[in-house]
Each structure stands twice: as C-alpha cells, then as structure tokens.
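ARCHIVE CARD
Drawer: 12
Card no.: 0347
Subject: one protein chain, sequence and derived structure
Cross-reference: see card 0346
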Amino acid sequence: MSTRKPAEFDAFAPGYDAGMSDPVKRIVGGSADTFLEHKADWLLRNLPVSGRLLDFGCGTGGFLRALRRRGAPAQLVGCDVASGMIEEARRRWDGGSLPDLRPVAPGALPFADAEFDLVTAVCVLHHIAPAERPAIAGELLRVVRPGGAVIIFEHNPRNPITRWMVARAPIDANAVLLRSEECDRLLRGVGAAECRTDYILFFPPTIGPLSHLERLLGRVPLGGQYATVGTRAR
C-alpha cells in the first residue's frame, strides 16, 4: 500500500519479487517467501491468529500465502491501492480457496468498524508519506475489534545492513524508513491501549538453527526488521 500513484506500484506487479533480484538479498534470504514465512512464524508464535485477518497493503499476497501454508486458522482478507498487485495476487494464489482480495482507493478503508480480529501491515508504512501515516494508523485500528491487534512489520533503520539494502532497491526509491518508536506513537496516538515491539531478522532466515537465539534477542533494537503490536482497547 503506498501513497504513490497506484500505477507506480502496478508497474512492479508482473514478476514482482519484493526486491529479491538483489543478489545480496538472495544470499541472505533465498526468496521473498522465506522472509514472509519468518514473519508468519513470528505472528503465529506471539498472537492468537483466528477469526478474520486483514493484510493491509497485501501486494501480491505473499504474506497471506505464508499464513495459509503455515495453517493459520483465520479467514484471510487482503487489500491494496495497486489493482495490478491484486490481480497478480489472484494469479499467484496456490493455497486452496482464494482469500477476499480487494483493490481499494487511498483514504478510508471500505470495511466496517471492528470487522477484523487482526490487521497486519507488512513493510508498508515506509512507502506512505509521514504526514499521512496517522490517518492510516487510525483506519487500521478502527477496523480491528476491541481486544484485537494491529501488527506493523517494518524495516529497522537502526540496522546498517537494512539501510544499505533499502537504498539499493528500486521499489524503495521513495521510501522513508521509520523507527519502532514512531510506530508505537502512531498506534498510541490513535487510541491503542497497549503497544509492544519485538525485533526480528538478526540472522538470515535460511539459517534455521539460529531461530531460537533470535527469540532471546527480541528486545534488542538491532534486528533487521521489527514487529510493533498495538491492541485496541476493550
């Protein structure tokens, strides 16, 4: 999901690989799916995933596919302002019944208040102009039920490798990275009752044996990415 003109992201839709054409990123992660499965695993370990889940700015549906492959017991919904990305998500879907995938206009989301149990935004906010982020955060919290959660995964600008890789990626040409503290302020500023952050991707996700060590480092603010969770007040 981006405040760029939708057609700008539509240009990346055919063959979209989340920047994995970068040889360094391929060495680190293997494929875009590897990074998304890492986040799906984190989500399933740390939060109850059930009911209805909205992936905001779902792109080509990679995170939703990762959740389905991991057997997430939730009804999956995705939306994006780039209709070409939604078309590509439908074309690529290989996980059984197709989720509800919707192109949406920038601005207010076409969902009812408290319609979802969880809302995710996976590496989306850095594509949104800083001045527009509070309104987006408000919409994400509006559509989640009381007691439900908004989960924002983002690149960690404290990590020098992350900054270097983002600077190399054509899809991130207009990106403005944000620290976890900003995500926390955004969610609290629109009414989240509780917020917490875990840092992830300290090691290449392909090195499975190090995953247990990463769990011990979750509060160390040096991981390549982070997950900020905001809970809507009951």
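Annotation on reverse: The chain has nine helices and seven strands. The first strand starts at residue 51 and ends at 56.
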